[in-house]
């Protein structure tokens, strides 16, 4: 129930509920505020006449304020409105610690030594508002009211931890309860709320009961207890079972005043019993279990209604005073050897006791009679049996073949006649046997009496015609044990959801199958080692599975009991659906991982998991799932239970060899996969020695040295070494690697050990999946679980390549993990035939370029008018650099054939120099275009070309000089891998670091710059076409010429070398060789042959007859329009006058020339 508090609502503790002087306390309440107020008060307790708050709870502006002994502690904890919050206050005078617990968050406040030791007793407690005493009466304070809902206010007389309070969330307080009889309320009565149910299965019943019987009956306390048990069995339904019953001494007067009508009831009782009667009263405390757990308030009302009617047992009447009935939910039951709040039966020590002494005939007869009486009274286990642990020494003589069975029969026969069962018998030795077992007994009178009965029965011994058993009286130890209950548990299985309730030890629970008409059963057994009640595996063999897809599988909780069923279910699902998406694969791997962690991995179960993992190999997996798969196989190998020294499991493309080596005779281990069968199942074997070289034809081989023995456990446990073989290379996908896996994967590990830094390395030999060519590069690697953000990847740290031929690679590694061999696809050359063709193309192209670069240089140097502008001067320098590069390339191999280190270093240095100079001048040409087209010459730059020359020829010289100064041997002879044994020498950079720093990075920087300029220039051309419609009519071919000329001038064809990867490598390399070797030819084509003013100079100075052109025939016509263009575009400042206007004229009028290209090659500056 809950209470809705408004501003006029107040609850006050009833005067009948008295708070004693406590040394400890715990107070809990559930709150939900419905409006946000600056100040509020949840509860307030004050001692008699006190003005300060003895303890209380309030709030202020998002803070919680807890009060104790007039002091306040502020907790910065905001409790959002319209949400339930649990707030508890705990205090102890012993540790002087005050705790505030809000939604399980604990805030501790130590108290000083002067703080009060006792809580003020008999005070006043109000809920929802604070109060004061004015003139001896209570005055409720307004303005700080709690507005919202409140429930489950309870108080205990002990300080509890956060965990204990959580376990008591539905348990009544033993000082103040959340029952209406404890509270006075007027305007705001409690309301039931089905959404706020509090369920409990344990209850304590306190009541004052009258027994009316014949005056001649002289029932003792034990007899009355038996009658009470029979009464409770009769009135309680099957779901309520009695755990224990405690009675007080009989008295003549009731403890509580009878309610109205009680006298009339007693007259009715007297009228029922014909003979003279007597009525006596006793207090009764009963602990009961309700299964399944139900709402506390409804359960209390039900139990109370069951106890009120009069019960007649053989003319013996039991009547409970309704006013005395008090039912509380509790967290735990007391030990049945203790009698809560009653003193009739003296408590029995919880420690083990030894019962000794002699017995009289009357005692023995009393015990036997007690057995008979008990057997007749109670024929089932509904009232909660009592359990004992017995240790004894017995001597057995005579003829017997199975002492365990003989002793078991004797105990069952001896104790069974008193309705006792024997469990978990264990014996040791002989003929004097040390024996221990557990006893399940019906509660006869009390614990002490039952213990004495067991003692009397066991020390009698046993004799028949064949055997004799004797138990010395001083060698029997009997102790009461409390196994508790098997916990309430909801189990998601492949057969559905089964909520198993709390059950007593040695009892079975049955419920209907979720699917089907049969029942599922589960036994709560008594553990022979721990003396605790534990659940046995459920029997669901008669039920029908409910899991039909992966979503159902995801909702199942894996336990040791259902792990085999889950593996079977996964197998069935994979048979039905072979293609899984990533989400479904994640579900399968997660469940397999849980099975390997919690399940008992028998060889049969591990074999099934091996087959599933093998099937997964043939399903496409994501890179994030590789580590999960490897972890499953590793953990399965660690936890599989098998007999003997070794066990193996194989499936298509997967094999596991598990070995428990004998440490006293350990000389190493070798594992080999000799071949793969037709279905890809590996054939494996192992040897108990260390071997360096494998047998011929081995697919995978790994050998562990004797040194790994130092990683075996030193606690005496037998070590385990496991080998794995993975015959599916596609499983190991490393997206960041530029190498591909060219072998299967083999692994080795030692359970619970990280084997690394071995002095004698592990030897691994793996057969290639495809034969290695002589120029191929291979690398020995291992799978690094932490690489690529824990997705896994290949790493070569600690592994070295010992030997590699066309079919095998042998490795040595200083650690254990998953090993493989990678093939470096990034450096794998194209075929020998293609490379010979490319070499021919390169040499022919370079020769052709040299010729046409020479023609280009002669043309520009011979005709002064062509080299007046800056772009032409830049073109001349670029042609010189390209000519030097191509000529050295043509003679490089010839000079290298002299085998002279000095000559080769010189050639390589000059080759490097002209290479850098070529790219430097291409970059400077791009810079000049940018300045000419974008900056539009707004400032004068003195010595413009001179500065370009200093940079274009000086920067390469600086780089080459630094290389020579740092390491002259960076230059030298290299062999081309393409020509195998007959490969010619070539003088070039030999140091990879120098190559990547001075060549790759330099070229990359220039290419990025040139690409940017290229894009800007094309954009500018487009703008010019839009602004000048006459130029836009020249068509697509004209624009294509412009793009092509810029591409070769800026060297953009070198980009092809950066993208020549994978299947496109060969065609791209053909394009690269063709375009770059002919770069000099294309410069001649676009900047001589297709340029109008160059052709005019040729016709003026080189042609004869009608082909010769007069020097001034067209030149005069070009001046005036050119001058106009210059003046109209304002492309130069007064200090930067043009020397040529003919090119601009030509750009605008010639249909055959590259008009826009002329713009980029014309910069109207004067040096």
Q: What secondary-structure arrangement, pairings included, does this model have?
A:
Blueprint: E1 3-5, E2 11-13, E3 24-33, E4 39-46, E5 55-60, E6 63-68, E7 71-75, E8 85-92, E9 97-102, E10 105-110, E11 124-127, E12 131-134, E13 137-140, E14 148-156, H1 162-167, E15 183-185, E16 199-214, H2 221-235, E17 240-247, H3 262-272, E18 277-295, H4 296-307, E19 311-313, E20 316-320, E21 326-329, H5 361-377, E22 386-398, H6 403-416, E23 421-429, E24 432-441, H7 447-459, E25 462-463, E26 467-470, E27 476-481, E28 485-486, E29 489-493, E30 496-500, E31 503-504, E32 507-512, E33 519-526, E34 533-535, H8 550-554, H9 563-576, H10 582-598, H11 603-617, H12 626-639, E35 646-651, E36 654-659, E37 669-676, E38 682-687, E39 700-704, E40 721-726, E41 739-741, E42 745-750, E43 762-767, E44 778-784, H13 787-790, E45 793-795, E46 799-804, E47 808-813, E48 818-824, H14 832-862, H15 870-896, H16 901-935, H17 944-966, E49 971-975, E50 985-989, H18 992-1027, H19 1036-1049, H20 1065-1077, H21 1079-1089, H22 1092-1101, H23 1115-1129, H24 1142-1149, H25 1155-1161
Antiparallel strand pairs: 1-14, 2-11, 2-15, 3-8, 3-14, 4-5, 4-11, 5-6, 6-7, 8-9, 9-10, 12-13, 16-18, 16-20, 16-21, 17-18, 19-20, 22-24, 22-26, 22-27, 23-24, 25-26, 28-31, 29-30, 32-33, 33-34, 35-36, 36-40, 37-38, 37-39, 39-43, 40-42, 41-48, 42-48, 43-47, 44-45, 44-48, 46-47, 49-50
